[in-house]
Amino acid sequence: QVQLVESGGGLVQAGGSLRLSCAASGSIFRIGNMGWYRQAPGKQRALVATITSGGGTHYADSVKDRFSISRDNAKNSVYLQMNSLKPEDTTIYYCNAVMDWGGNYWGKGTLVTVSP
């Protein structure tokens, strides 16, 4: 079994910054893609950013130039640096990790609230 634990969410004013962290533990051999998704109430979970094991990144258009994803393979961790936050970024953010054997795992989520 694999567990993902997110941290770093909280309340910030518009224009501020937050850094989310996610650490994977458990029966890990090798992690493939890792990423961050977010889900507003009543909406589908949406991609924010992903990163391959080699460091290749992909971002949603809404966060390009504001958010930056990174990972530490030695620590089985992924990070999301969020700058210039907007009220519309308010929602729950979920960490995702795909194992090299295909297992797909999610964290329980961390709440980000951006006040006007």
Entry summary:
The chain has 116 residues and is mostly beta strands. Helix content is 0%, strand content 58%.
List keywords for this structure.
116 residues, mainly beta, seven-stranded mixed β-sheet, four-stranded antiparallel β-sheet, 0% helix
Description:
The chain has strands spanning 2-7, 10-13, 18-26, 31-39, 46-51, 57-59, 67-72, 77-82, 91-99, 104-106, 110-115. The protein is mostly beta strands and 116 residues long. Strands 2, 4, 5, 6, 9, 10 and 11 form a 7-stranded mixed beta sheet that branches. It has a 4-stranded antiparallel beta sheet with strand order 1-3-8-7, with no helix packed on it. It starts with a strand and ends with a strand.
Identify the overall geometry: globular
How many β-strands, per DSSP? 11
Q: Order of helices and strands, N to C?
A: EEEEEEEEEEE
Which radius of gyration do the C-alpha atoms yield?
14 Å
Give the quaternary arrangement of the chains. Answer: single chain
Instruction: Please mark out the parts with pLDDT under 50 across 5 or more consecutive residues, or reply none.
Output: none
Question: Please, what is the average pLDDT?
Answer: 96
Put simply, the count of helices is 0
Structural class: mainly beta
Distance between the termini: 40 Å
Helix content: under 10%
Which strand-content bin applies to the residues? over 45%
Largest sheet: 7 strands, mixed
